[in-house]
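Archive transcription. Copying these from loose printouts into the bound notebook so they stop getting lost. Printout 1 of 2:
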Amino acid sequence: MKSATFLKEGLSTINGNCTLIVLNQKQLRPSITFALKTIITDEKDPIILISASESGERVLKEVNSEKLSIVDVFSREKTGINKENTIYQVDNPSNLTSIQIGIEKFSKKEEKEIIIFDSISILSIYNSPQNIGKFFYLFSNKAKLQGNSILLFATKETISEEALDMIKQFCDKVFDYSGLFISSIELAQ
């Protein structure tokens, strides 16, 4: 899948909202890249990406913009910020407090921001559904009070129904595109 244009509907609703987009595993990386490039082109607000599915360095090679800051949960480097002040490393996906601190490092209180979680599914592997629910409840309330927009990506195959249902409660819009693409292997059976 080279293009993820089916996301345009979901991306058009993010302003001031918490939007959840559910995908299948094959759609995840191309969809995140498409979403980042689209948002960088269409929006003036700064973007904070919480990257759990790919290293911050690799994301910056694909999508480089002065508007983009990254909280890197994927690399599992020692917690801290890089010398260019573009990537905040979090050493463990179960450390939700460090993720929140990373977001705060890049947050500009006087500006509205777009905060993107590229894979809440990965966070749900390392945290209980209750902890994920508490985290997103507090996080989404705080972000909405500040006027920020939130875009969450999840892969249907790797997140528990309990965690997904809990997160849906805090979202204004939910789009499930996970059934859009049927692989040739499934068609052959």
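Printout 2 of 2:
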Amino acid sequence: MLNFIKDRHLARLTAYSLTDQALLSLTGFATSALLLRLASKESFGLYAQMVNLLAFFSPVHAGIFVSAFIALASQLRGPELVRFKAGMARAELTCLVVSLPAVGFLMLLLPRSMVGTGSTAIVLPFCVSLGGLWAREFVRAQYFVRYRHNLALLVDSAYSAMLIGGIVLLSLGHAVTVNLVLLVGGFASLLAVAGPWISGLIAEAPSPAIIRRDLTTTWVAGRWDIAGSAVSWLSQQSYIYFAALQGGLAGAAEIAAARLLVMPLLVVWTGYANVIRPESARLFAAGDLRGLRGLAARASALVIALTCGYGVLLFGVYTTLQGALMGRAFEGIGGFVALWLLYALVTGLDTVLAGILRSGLQFKSVFLITLLVCPVTLAAVAIGLLLGSKGAPLWGMTLGEGVFILLASRRLLSLLQPGSAQAA
């Protein structure tokens, strides 16, 4: 696999990052598998919707404190980088304090079909889970900027151990509920990053004026990514609600259970993007167009190779795996699994293209492409639902991601033409 990557340093980072994301994938897989066995089908459907709501409420934080932070911090060195990181740590804490109560209020306004019958009781666990996720993602972003992917792996190892250990303890007391699983996940994230997170907050920070300036800079750089992430959620994450609209919580559970079998690939793409983005930001800053072309080609080849290999392995053990993990309640989801595998291939290529474009501060371009793709996806889903297709959400998402590949490739190729370095 690493033969696709020529640079030894990048190969080492890729190995750490893929190991990290494989661990997170396994953790998510284990969490869902435990819920499938220890809770009802409807509870699993509710949990799947809560996971997607975490993504729904995260675009602003991810755009400023992950995407823009990585793109800008990767171009800084020495004291300037230290100052920037310390200031953004203070800003991120303020974001948590202000945002989480607002999210809790909005949760109370959601329909019960999205949050279950205990809509009030789930608000606090959800906000704890969201706050933990945001804190862990920001700490990981700081490690990626420093090319310390091994430390991100250490943080996620601690998180995974505490989360799975907590769920096992709950199972011993026959107390596995969606609310308690969300609480355990949130506290596991916070405890895993407590050391580096607190260290960042107590480090000597710049003046409030400089923090506001840096926050404004990241907002300007990331605002298009924020808007793009919000639009992406509509086209890539709303499938679970379309499935629930058609088949209730049980329908949501079936499509989420099928995704579970392909989730390792989807999480690996996120990990690989964490390698590509700092490296491509460095290449953009150096004006190395040849290096960028090579990086894009090798990354795309790796996505195709991994998807094909995983698909062969998955269908070789599908019957045994599905029966052992899900039981008879989820028989007949093989068609969903095949559609998720196709989607994983196209979204992997999308992740490579979008990661490189964002590293070149092409957030507006990514947003505009995403904005064009969204109505294509939703229209395809709507037509499929009208025709009675249970796979309509997946067909629609795959079609939309295919359109994204065409448009993003065209934009990236235009940037990589000689004399176009300043456009990035």
